[in-house]
Design brief:
18% strand; alpha+beta; six-stranded mixed beta sheet; 12 helices; 425 residues; three-stranded antiparallel beta sheet
Length: 425
């Protein structure tokens, strides 16, 4: 890509927005984003370029590919309506999950360039400043990305599986339903199981220790300021009246900029298997938890039997992020067992120094989430205590929403952030 091409794109775009700025997202795409991608060498009309799709719960206007391998994610807002913090964070999380390490987020006026997965480098600039960052934009051309994708490897399979997840799951469910007597009645279970299967495949292929190096955008611009402007702000608002905000706020827990490949190796697929195994081990005894003496016996005698209505079959996935990005995930078909697996995972990776009985800061001193016995501080038995591998008892009673709150509270106590997907709500 030559500087002349980029200068020409910016010149045409400035003339367009000064005469008649785009009024909708579609016009923003057609008048500004399509020409930018074409300037970068992408064919937005090719069959390999997906439009208006959702990947890992994140809405995307474009997913471009090279040789069938997803290569670049692009999210678009209507011109001048501002970039959204939550969507920027969601985009970063999708990059971490899929392994697709290039993304552009823009409203046609502001541009946020992301490179990397577990530790994404960022560059933010205005439309008029794009020619000043030609070397950074070179990382997003089809030619440059294509060269990096010439040698196929396992992480590229993960990208393809992640982008096609919904289609793959639907195909598996259709096949299972067709070959099973009265299979329609079990379609929800097939869907949950197929979803977990594909997600484990993504995790297994995404981490082979040889991820493509993302590279830094521009070290000199690592501290560039960027603002997420307020919704509804006018397109001709002066830059002086808009409050700048560091791009650090667009990333999970404000991770520091650095080499994407220098993060911990805790994203390995074996961790997912270990946490599932921990959940199964914790669920191996459906009777009274071991230990606890008289208190345990009292809890057992007082605890009502769980009915089928209390068993919430579905898909309960928890992904954990530290200051550098994604570190792993757990999942289960039941929310109570997902809570147990999440607690085991966190105790193995940073949750320590707790004083029991422990509870989130909800103002109720009579209830406990973790205790050394299956009772609450007021000596009443827990509703559904489960003994963890460290000997503590975890309260798993309540509905999925309450269990989700406990997962998030435990993750926060361990210094992580939890992203819950599936059927938690």
């Amino acid at each position: 890509m030559s500087a002349f091409d980029l200068d020409a794109f910016v010149g045409r775009s400035r003339a367009l927005v000064e005469s008649a700025p785009p009024a909708t997202r579609r016009e923003t795409r057609t008048w500004l984003v399509d020409p930018l991608l074409e300037t970068l060498g992408w064919d937005v009309r090719a069959d390999t370029c997906l439009h208006e799709t959702t990947v890992d719960g994140t809405r995307l206007e474009y997913v471009t590919a090279v040789g069938g391998v997803p290569a670049l994610l692009v999210a678009v807002e209507p011109y001048g309506e501002s970039l959204d913090r939550d969507r920027a964070v969601s985009l970063l999380e999708t990059m971490a999950w899929t392994g697709i390490d290039r993304a552009i987020y823009t409203d046609g006026r502001d541009f946020l360039l992301l490179a990397g997965t577990t530790d994404a480098d960022r560059l933010a600039c205005r439309l008029t400043a794009l020619p000043d960052h030609e070397s950074a934009l070179a990382h997003y051309t089809r030619e440059t990305i294509g060269q990096r994708l010439e040698r196929h490897s396992r992480p590229f399979v993960a990208r393809q599986l992640a982008v096609a997840r919904d289609e793959i799951v639907a195909s598996i469910v259709d096949e299972l339903t067709a070959v099973t007597d009265q299979g329609v009645a079990y379609r929800a279970e097939f869907d949950s199981a197929a979803g977990r299967f594909v997600e484990r495949l993504v995790a297994a292929f995404s981490d082979d220790g040889q991820r493509p190096v993302a590279g830094e955008l521009e070290a000199a611009d690592a501290d560039v300021s960027f603002e997420f402007s307020e919704s509804g702000s006018s397109s001709d608002e002066s830059e002086a009246t808009r409050e700048p905000m560091s791009t650090d706020e667009s990333r999970p827990n404000n991770p520091s900029t650095g080499d994407p490949d220098s993060s911990t190796d805790e994203t390995s697929a074996t961790e997912d298997c270990e946490t599932d195994a921990a959940a199964d081990a914790a669920d191996g005894d459906e009777s009274q938890p071991n230990g606890g003496g008289a208190d345990a016996a009292r809890a057992s005698a007082s605890r009502p039997e769980r009915s089928d209505a209390d068993v919430d079959e579905g898909e309960y996935v928890v992904r954990f992020f530290n200051e550098r990005g994604s570190i792993g995930a757990i999942g289960h078909s039941r929310s109570d067992r997902a809570l147990v697996a999440a607690a085991e995972y966190l105790f193995e990776r940073g949750l320590s120094g707790l004083s029991v009985p422990w509870r989130p800061d909800d103002g109720d001193d009579t209830r406990a989430v973790l205790h050394e016995s299956p009772t609450h501080p007021d000596e009443t038995p827990m509703t559904a205590p489960r003994q963890l591998s460290n000997g503590l008892y975890l309260e798993t009673g309540g509905d999925a929403e309450r269990r989700a709150d406990r997962v998030e509270a435990l993750a926060a106590r361990a210094g992580f952030r939890a992203m819950l997907t599936g059927d938690w709500e």
